[in-house]
Amino acid sequence: MSTATPNATTVRTRVAIVGAGPAGLILSHLLAVAGIDSVVIDQRSREDIEQTIRAGILEQGTVDLLTEIDPHTRVHTVGDRHDGIELRFQGAGHRIDFRELVGRSVWLYPQHEVLKDMLALRLRTGQDLRFGVTASRVEGINTETPRVIATDADGAELIIDADFVVGADGSRSVVRPAIAGTSRDGYFREYPFAWFGILCDAPASADELIYSNSPDGFALISQRSPDVQRMYFQCDPDIDPNAMSEAEIWETLQVRVPGTTLKEGKILQRDVLRFRSFVARELRHGRAALVGDAAHTVPPTGAKGMNLAIADVVLLARALDTLLNENDTRLIGTYADDALKRIWKAQHFSWWMTNMLHSLPEHNEFDRQRQLGELRSVTDSEAGRTYLAEAYTGWPI
Ligand code: PHB
After folding, report:
1. Ligand 1: centre distance to CA 224 (Å)
2. 196 shares its domain with 158
3. Assessment of whether the complete model's pTM goes beyond 0.85
4. Residue 356: what pLDDT?
5. Do 22 and 135 fall into the same domain?
6. Domain of 264, in residue numbers
7. Is residue 134 part of a domain?
8. How many distinct structural domains can be found in the chain?
9. Any ligand 1 atom below 6 A from CB of 85
10. Quick one: CA dihedral 263, 302, 171, 276, positive or negative?
11. Within 10 Å of residue 103's Cβ, how many Cβ atoms?
């Protein structure tokens, strides 16, 4: 069954991790703490990984874990603790006070900062971490010696022989077909809209995030630093991000956040984020498992993506510790079911926030009024606000 070419290089490790995003890197750390070595590969360069702009909200449990990993984590100095968010509709803001409702917070700390920290930490502690290495397939997951076949930056074949293979390689996972049979086998929902995201040179328009429902569509006002802001507005998924002038972008954003005036500035970057919900049908098979975006995708409205990936990894690290150190298969046997409980709660929350806040092409006046009724049910009631606060700040892992 081996398909190695004669000049292939073979390395041997206990866990082969495909993908050096937050999930793959944190997993390699937790495994190292348990005395299990791993090789992490990623097709991107270190610079690409560190510069990709992604979401920015860390749940309380994620921050607790990052603090456990490194007590001096920059989350507490560079990051910004947020004790609430604002839901805005019909021109008025309604604060959801996380601290008061559930005694928890979230932190605004962009994913690429988490990546910079974790890459530096893993490299400092001697992790075998290889950039520019593209996995092509996984073999032998029904044996005790699965392997990853990859191509390194120079085009030479690299084979990683392991006791276990983990796909932390994002929504276009190469590991997923080995586990699920096909790369698309799972549960899907597409949404008929996307987010137009901008990064701009401007002072903050608010201290906390504003999730705004308006008759013209949704907008989210987020921040990055005292002088750089991140904002999004609901748009057509097929829009060309370069087709709008800066003036048109600002006009769109201002109309979407009625009752407040956004501080404008030079637009530094623009992108379009597709919206979809996905859960792979199988998260583990034999000696291979999926974590993070390889296992599931959520729309960004609930700010759950990276947090969910990290929660998967905590469960999988425990399961691999008992499997590889004690030869006990119980936790790896329940990994998928254990992870799926949280994944489906996060799927529901992300879908719910999305539907409550966006306007859909098929909405009529009934739907519009019903949506405002739903927003009022949340903001007028302590039970409603508490549900949102509990889900947004994250369930205990
Ligand atoms: C962001 O700051 O990029 C961000 C924040 C909250 C979200 C999504 C994105 O729900």
Report:
1. 10
2. no
3. yes
4. 98
5. yes
6. 77-106+191-275+358-393
7. yes
8. 2
9. no
10. negative
11. 10
